[in-house]
């Protein structure tokens, strides 16, 4: 299909996590999520502080209206607990391509499989529905945990943008760029499905 902007809001549903279009209805759940592990205290990230959450939602929705972003709230399927946020951004329908980023999840959800499944859902929609030729991901040089997580997806490192912008504390940020091409997507999908195979609940026998 031909990608057009703004991208249409959509709910992406997996076994462990559901990605819903971001709205102010998620505000209190997102505040609870960011307080789980004091996520916003990580100086090298852009995770919003609890008191800034409403403004962050406003900002992402405004960028969605301009066709520059499609933001999601990640919700755990088992109990509808809000886990965090993720986003399509840097959307270019001419290629077409986009990036996945501005992602964070509550501390207690780390290592549960929810983030890999979120990436699987986002990549499936990007490649199989939106027809992307390339999906980018980026993180900060100092965020080794995030770099390793992106590499585990099967993304290839494209390079490092030195002194790309500043952290909110004023320090200079080096951005590490990764990407997945359409030709690489089947291998990336197989890897993610393999990683998730022990996380997905077995079907109930009749």
TrEMBL record:
One of its GO terms (molecular function) is acyltransferase activity, transferring groups other than amino-acyl groups. The keyword Transcription does not apply. InterPro entries: Acyl_CoA_acyltransferase, GNAT_dom. It comes from Luteipulveratus mongoliensis. This is Amino acid acetyltransferase. Keywords: Transferase. Residues 18-156 form the N-acetyltransferase domain. It holds the Pfam family Acetyltransf_3.
């Amino acid at each position: 299909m031909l990608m057009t902007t703004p991208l249409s809001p959509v709910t992406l549903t997996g076994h462990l996590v559901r990605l819903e279009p971001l709205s102010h209805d998620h505000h209190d759940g997102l505040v609870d999520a960011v307080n789980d592990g004091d996520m916003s205290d990580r100086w090298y990230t852009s995770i919003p502080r609890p008191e800034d959450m409403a403004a962050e939602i406003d900002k992402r929705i405004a960028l969605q209206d301009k066709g520059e972003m499609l933001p999601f709230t990640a919700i755990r399927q088992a109990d509808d607990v809000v886990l965090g946020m993720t986003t399509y951004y840097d959307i270019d329908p001419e290629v077409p391509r986009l990036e996945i980023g501005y992602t964070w999840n509550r501390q207690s959800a780390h290592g549960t499989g929810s983030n890999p499944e979120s990436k699987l859902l986002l990549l499936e929609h990007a490649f199989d529905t939106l027809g992307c030729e390339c999906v980018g991901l980026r993180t900060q040089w100092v965020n080794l945990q995030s770099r390793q997580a992106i590499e585990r997806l099967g993304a290839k490192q494209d390079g490092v943008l030195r002194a790309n912008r500043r952290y909110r504390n004023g320090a200079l940020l080096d951005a590490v760029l990764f990407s997945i091409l359409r030709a690489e997507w089947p291998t990336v999908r197989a890897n993610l499905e393999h990683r998730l195979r022990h996380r997905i609940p077995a079907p109930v026998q009749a």
